[in-house]
DNA sequence: TATTGTTATACTCTATAACTATA
DNA sequence: TATAGTTATAGAGTATAACAATA
């Protein structure tokens, strides 16, 4: 132990940099594979139980949080996806009667997308089941560990938003 | 503080369950959006700098770790993707001269996929730059926080592998 | 002119299932 | 029969760019 600390004090900067790089990479690979596993599990369950895809579910989740409705451009930013895709997903959901486009009185180029009553009802059911799945998938952590992780992720994310917002459509949450 | 603890002791089980659900959901949403942001950033940089996609890069990364070569089925498991896709990605990389299929002497149905010398060289360059990007993107955490997070993710992941390996092609790492 | 949203297109990744050739 | 890998197909999601309507 002490040996290690002493070594740590005397190694040169380049070595420490390499170690940091390796640690970051390890963290990233673990984070990525864990996320993919959970995402796949949830995606499969959503399809099997509710015949819905993840982006469609996400769009509805955004609308649930904004009962006043969101414009297409808002949805695009929040879902980190370009505009054309939002049109497509919204089209599908509208066909199924789950969301509706409400024309904006002030700006006739724009729409507000809202959940229909049927959409709100359907989403409530799905969201509740979805939430219990997530709880199940994270049952490997206790409450303390979860809040720790939430804090760590927030640090990463705020650092990202501050420095790399240019890359795509961020401004998330 | 004390008030909070007392309250925590006396609230009923259902309430605590709901709180846990919300916390898990919050954790998952934060983890997902953070991962997506980093993934997008890396994907864009890989395309811009090296004209390579993430799956192609990942396949090469797998081979780099296994100089003796990997069979198509192995790659399929490790990349959490079905077999047909591995054929496609391998075809592309083979065309570009980055990997090669080596027929197995013992089992003439099977191949070992390996990096070519050119592939190994190209990957070394990319991997080193990639690693520094990752370090940059995680610079919001210090070494201590990173190792904390690695530990937390390991708990989640091992719990997942133990309970949900059926969902797709896991057995990762 | 700039902005909101749509359309058209093309590309990548993905899963499924039928297929071939070995084992 | 079972297994390793391929092929064919279809579907989802994505970005880009040209476009229409409105501001």
TrEMBL record, chains A, B:
Domain of life: Bacteria
Residue span(s) of domain HTH marR-type: 22-158
Matches recorded under Pfam families: MarR
Keyword terms, alphabetized: DNA-binding, Transcription, Transcription regulation
PROSITE patterns, sorted: HTH_MARR_1 (PS01117), HTH_MARR_2 (PS50995)
SMART domains (alphabetical): HTH_MARR
PANTHER family: HTH-TYPE TRANSCRIPTIONAL REPRESSOR YETL, TRANSCRIPTIONAL REGULATOR, MARR FAMILY
Protein name from the UniProt record: MarR family transcriptional regulator
Organism listed in the record: Undibacterium macrobrachii
